Every structure is written in structure tokens, then in C-alpha cells.
UniProtKB/TrEMBL annotation:
It comes from the Bacteria. This is Protein GrpE. The keyword Methyltransferase does not apply. Pfam families: GrpE (PF01025). PANTHER family: GRPE PROTEIN, GRPE PROTEIN HOMOLOG, MITOCHONDRIAL. GO terms for cellular component: cytosol. The keyword Chaperone applies. GO terms for biological process: protein folding. It is found in: Cytoplasm. Participates actively in the response to hyperosmotic and heat shock by preventing the aggregation of stress-denatured proteins, in association with DnaK and GrpE. It is the nucleotide exchange factor for DnaK and may function as a thermosensor. Unfolded proteins bind initially to DnaJ; upon interaction with the DnaJ-bound protein, DnaK hydrolyzes its bound ATP, resulting in the formation of a stable complex. GrpE releases ADP from DnaK; ATP binding to DnaK triggers the release of the substrate protein, thus completing the reaction cycle. Homodimer. GO terms for molecular function: adenyl-nucleotide exchange factor activity; protein homodimerization activity; protein-folding chaperone binding; unfolded protein binding.
């Protein structure tokens, strides 16, 4: 029982460390005017998004981003990396 408690404390410590690192990373992106492109449920834009595949979904409008596989980034309006997405047929 004691080992399980220590293991949970270790997991919580790792989670807190990861959250802090992510917060610091986000702060660095903001500092240098780097914008994250996360187009979930938005209309597909070929200038900012790269379609990995298309999938049918009766609940979504055709041409809408269904899933973001990898977020994209912009620096001062200039595309650094397009978002990799799956688009509704």
C-alpha cells in the first residue's frame, strides 16, 4: 500500500513538472510572437493547413477540420509549419 502511495506521488510530481514546462514553452512562444495554429472544427484553409486525409462525418459540414494531428505555427503572420489535419468529405 505504501509503495502505491509513493508511486502516485511520483506520477503527480511528473505531471506538475510537465505542466510547468508546457507553461514556460507557451510563454516563450508568446514572447517571440509565435502563434499556434489549432484549427479544430474550423473551415479547411490550404494556406495554413495540410490535409492528411479526408473522412466522412454526417454531423460536420464538408471541408471542416475534423481532427488536428499536429498543430501548426506562425511567426508574425508567416507560416512556420502547417497544421496537419483530417478534413470532412
Amino acid at each position: 500500500m505504501e509503495a502505491a502511495t509513493q508511486e502516485q506521488a511520483s506520477i503527480d510530481t511528473l505531471r506538475e513538472g510537465n505542466e510547468l514546462a508546457l507553461k514556460m514553452f507557451s510563454g516563450a512562444l508568446d514572447k517571440f510572437n509565435i502563434e499556434i495554429i489549432d484549427p479544430a472544427n474550423e473551415k479547411f484553409n490550404p494556406d495554413l493547413h495540410e490535409a492528411m486525409s479526408m473522412a466522412p462525418n454526417p454531423e460536420a459540414e464538408s471541408g471542416t477540420v475534423l481532427h488536428v494531428h499536429q498543430k501548426g505555427y506562425q511567426l508574425n503572420g508567416r507560416l512556420l509549419r502547417p497544421a496537419l489535419v483530417i478534413v470532412c468529405q
